[in-house]
## 1
Amino acid sequence: MPVRPSPQTASPGAAPATARPTVASYNEWDPLEEVIVGTARGAARVAFEPALAAYYPLGDPERNFGGAPFPQEDIDRAERQLDAFALRLEKEGVTVRRPEPVMHHEGYTTPDFAAANGHAQTCPRDVLLVIGDRIIEVPMAQRGRFFEYRAYRRLVKEYFAAGAQWVAAPRPQLAEETYVPGYTTEDTYYDFADHPALTEFEPLFDAASFTRCGRDIFCQPDVVTNRFGIDWLRRYLGPEFNVHIVQFSDRYPQHIDTTLVPLRPGLALTNPERPFKDDMADFFTESGWRLVDAVPSVRTGPPSTRDVSNWISTNILMLNPETAVVEAAEEPLTDLFRSLGIDVIECEFDAVFRFGGSFHCCTLDIRRQGELQSYFG
């Protein structure tokens, strides 16, 4: 069914009301009205490639692994949890859309690289960036995710037909020049800032490397996002937005949504295992923000676990400034939120983790109430 703006009513004789944009989202906390929830159907494990080198030191025999389908029972269990999550959002009054499953089991070749197979369409937050009424297809650094945008094209075309802006960042080549040769995360190169995984050959970024606070957008250069990509987005958005680079002490950073998690104006979770390396903490606190240490997940193993971060607990979705969706087993985080005056909706989601993330990763805000504002002095 085509997506159309919600009709507006007006009293007799009044000027026509302006229809609310179909796509409108400026931050991570305003009341959620419409969202895309991903799917695990069609998912596969990507083969080793240069963009994954951060997680496999030189000499690690697992650098030779090839791609493979996920076991069907894992897909089915994850999909049941995704379906239950989508149903719960609908019960909360949120319109939920789902992508079209794309089978990622086949390999593909471009003029610049070959991939044994693709990955999934479980995490729309990685692939698309919504800022206001703009939907941006991002230039992802992983070869196995090159065609992932295809799962969302039907939805994006509907949103465009209903008035949204739609742009694709420059499609990357992902050639050998894109990656730092022989990249490793051995102790010699512990400081990521001094030894990035990507060159500046072309603009690259995942959407989940950015978090939105109205006119101020925060991002970190990481294993899938380079400064060329940040510069491209900054120039595209123009002076209406301030794109800030934030750096944390993190051996292999990827995405910001388990490191800096805005909850509402003036309140954000931070990761005590990944402290700020720059003065951005002062930028927040001097603007009246409270930064609260998150708690690690009870679902996962030690920090070396490759399938999922041990901070997956913080990958939450804010339905509004007073309500968060939290994984059902994460009682320490639930207790923390309630101490902050935030209600919690608990959903089981552990089967979804291995497909790329939790509630924030597996959703994409399409429309939230509220307008563009500045939350910093």
## 2
Amino acid sequence: MTNQAAKRTGPDASYDDPSFSLKRWLSSDGNLTRLFVIMVVVFVTMTVLSPRTFLTLDSFSSMAFQFPVLGILSLAMMLTMVSGGIDLSIVGIANLTSILAAMVMVRLVPEGASAGTSFMYMLLGIVCAIIAGVLCGLLNGFAVAKIGIPPILVTLGSMQLFMGLAIVITKGQAIVGLPEQFSSIGNGSHIGIPVPLIIFALCVAAVYVLLNRRPYGMKLQLLGSNPTASRYGGINNTVVLLKTYALSGLLASIAGLVMIALTNSAKADYGTSYILQAILVVVLGGVNPNGGFGKIAGVVMAVLTLQFLSSGLNALHVGNFFKDFIWGIVLILVMVINAVSPRLKWKRRAAGSSKTSS
């Protein structure tokens, strides 16, 4: 860690100590500290309530296969929220693109095709899904950046559009019989690590580099903080928004591919509950809903927290309807806490400065 990096960790950091300190890292951001505590509390609570079911190797292995889809969708949601917008169409994009991929893999492969031919069609299906995801994202970005329609209205409409297209294409039926090579992406492991978890880690690394090591990240945060100031600062807001929604569509298509690889089928209504959960993850992870700020570490911890909570509730045999109720309550509470915390900090600082001056 360089001196510059040490300066970011807070006033208590030692400039001469280059070693990593969890306490120093958490103390630099109150949201991360709060989220880390919540994650530990949820984990300990679920362990106490259901130790024989929750705290097992099989349970953690199952979680490693389950949460990457939500995690990747949350990364897509995070990018658009940092820009000051939102993308409600991520699940629609995931389903539409995965259906296109499944059709290429299943319906276009000739009968009696060799393993090599099937593999080529599998790659073609993946490429088609990714291209379609980027195009769907660009459609959203064009409506937001060029036409000027509010992002929530654009993506709400495109969500219905993409889901409607998926239903029309499949006539409401599931596409089954995906190639075995492709299904291994969702259910296989590499050196003992689940492949979906590896894909999620790669997506996290890519988004981290974009936000923290590339000019795009600075432009995105400036745009989310103050679009007018960023425009006068020489930033092309239109290009940044187009890139952001294209990346959101790309990540959504990757999530869709992982989702159908897990289930070995594709359908138009898969993962509808992921929209609320992705918003919850992003807000819980400390991303400012008004734009301008967000950290990858917070989103990752929020995904893990929700997965611990979901797996624990499953172990306690809690129904899905009650879980949706819990997600809604948690989302409201987090937004209230995020709104109240800055005001309390400001009041404490004001009180402290008044005492000092007196």
## 3
Amino acid sequence: MAELDHWHPVLLSHELRRKPRNVRLAGHEIVVFRTSSGGLGAFTDRCPHRSMRLSEGWVEGDRLVCAYHGWRWAVDGRGEIPATPAARPCARREDMFEAVERYGAIWVKRAGSQAAFPRLEGEGYVPRGLLRHRATVPFELALDNFIEIEHTPFVHFMLGYPLERMPEVEARVTLTDETIRVVHSGPRRPMPRAMEKLLGIPEDAIFVVDWTSYFSPVYTIYNHSLRDPKTNQPVTFPLRSAVFFNPVGPESSEMYTFLFASLAPWSKFGAGAVLWPAMQVAMNIELRLDMRLLDRLTDKRGILKGNVLGRFDKPLVIARDRIDRIYRGRVAEAGDGHEAARPARRLPLAAP
């Protein structure tokens, strides 16, 4: 199961205390635990002895204790048997996971895989919050929703574009062998007049959504900004977020959304302390609206073939190839893996 070879966020940091926790990832059950010294361990949630769920056990010192016969397991997979002190059992390599704690979350990947940890912050940003949402669809369908903006006039109240001006929205697509980048730009949605005055937003400001999707694991980094149409400079706080799409089961997925605050000069005057908590609340509402929308889909198989697609849907088709090739490893790379990467190429989206 190649999906387990990539780093995934699976718990919020504060959820992992003294009690081991069971998590599901790509249909696989994993136990995650925190040792008394602060270390992290993760295994398949099944004792190698007699298949008891290890998450039913407890932690003593730096070892996870199975609730069935008391076998004790260290983070590196070495075991102890109270009833047979001389024995030296060891967990199977394929049942062991690496675990780290970053950005307020616990992350895991299968032990021994060479996947690099995602880099999320971006220059000029600091971590500011973390949200988690569950969707009743395969993660591919959740990704589909998050990498097109045509639905935003009907679903969202803050992000996106006004319906009557959607034909004016431009989209530029840039592909590499590993990523999909799309920049949408167009007339902004109207805001309460008091907010526009407070933030100094010009009436003709352009709303820009610059996002890049990666596939080890599957996640998308978004940069949202309102820009002056004359100077192309941001006129208020840029918003950066990274959304990770975890497969849970055949028709369920989890989204972990990491929010990042701008270190732009105007944030030093204290406005950020007021606006960022409000922005986090607004983002949580927006994401809940997406989850409610996805729940109403009639076909939850995650198959695009046979659907009639529009000009904003091309990234969805390209993403399927990246998921199969990079995330699931189903299509072999050309060459021996040491050849130079092909240069990025820019593709125009079809006219409406």
